[in-house]
Amino acid sequence: MIRRRFPWLSYLLVGTGAVLTVVPFADMLMTSFKGPDEAGTLPYRFLPRAFDLSNYRAAIQQLDLPVLFRNSVVATAMITGSVLLTSSLAGYALAKLRFPGRDFVFRLVLSTMMFPPFLFFVPHFLILVHWPLAGGNDLLGRGGAGLTVSIVALAMPFLVSSFGVFLTRQFMVSIPDEVLEAARIDGAGEFTVWWRIVVPQTRPVLVTLGLLTFVDAWNEYIWALLVSTADPDVMTLPVGIQFLQDHVDPTRTLPIVMAGLVLSVLPVLVLFLLLQKHYIRGVMLSGLK
Questions:
Q1: What is the rounded CA–CA span in Å between residue 178 and residue 189?
Q2: Residue 279 to residues 22, 110, 228, 282: CA-CA distances in angstroms?
Q3: Ranges for the ABC transmembrane type-1 domain (predicted)?
Q4: CATH number of 91's domain
């Protein structure tokens, strides 16, 4: 009722929210072009005196940006690919296959969503340390560092997502069983039914899940910091930027840190712009808010 009588109020609220969201990113971008004597000084200047790209060159050199990018890209790709594959397969099994204990398994998956991920970081780390025949360990997992010195350690705790299983399962329930039965009558196996019928129909939801997983994995900090303490060579971009900010004079390196943050945000922004249409459709179809 209020929206119909005062339509301008909706536009005002949306516009205010958009401004509050964009301003911090714009300030980060402008700060990345400022000189060392401009950042953090009063009176505050939003625009730099001169747009200089030296901060980006310094960020690439001081942060060893190519290595950090490589680690982040590899770990994020492993996590995103695994989550999409396992969520789609598990969601199909829980939605369309009948087997004893199916509802119990689904409730068990839902129950794991109540626990925060960092609650299991220490057990995960100990498992990776004692991984057999890896990192100098013997068959009993003793004598070395296990998988903690491998880039695989960055992805191991996040390869399966209970939220992803729940999301894909809820969407796949709406697929008519008659379509799947017709494919089975024609001789299609379960894998063929899943790949040729179910996956194409769930593409918007899978794109949404993939984008959400990509953002979470790209910005993961606590687990990446824990793993990088065992092997600095697997340090990711968020850890490297925070390391620079904590160990160097912030008044001099703030523009460099902002330049690193801009570079770290670019992959997520580009991916979202490329998949925006599928993402919005997936949100609408899956009922996400």
A1: 15
A2: 20, 24, 32, 5
A3: 69-275
A4: 1.10.3720.10
Scanning the structure block, which residue is given the tokens 């190519």? Answer: 66
**DSSP annotation of 158:** G
Output the pTM of the full model: 0.84
- 128 touches 231 (CB < 8 A): no
Structure confidence by residue, pLDDT tens digits, 138-153: 888 888 888 888 889 9
Torsion sign across C-alpha atoms 215, 219, 221, 225: positive
Q: Total structural domains in the chain?
A: 1
Q: Specify the amino acid at residue 186.
A: D
Give me the domain span that covers residue 253: 53-286
Q: What is the pLDDT of residues 232-280, one digit of tens each?
A: 888 898 888 887 776 555 556 778 888 888 888 888 888 877 777 766 6
DSSP state of 248: S
Residue 43: cis peptide before it, omega within 30 degrees of 0: yes
Contacts 24+ apart (CB under 8 A), 242-249: 244/62, 244/63
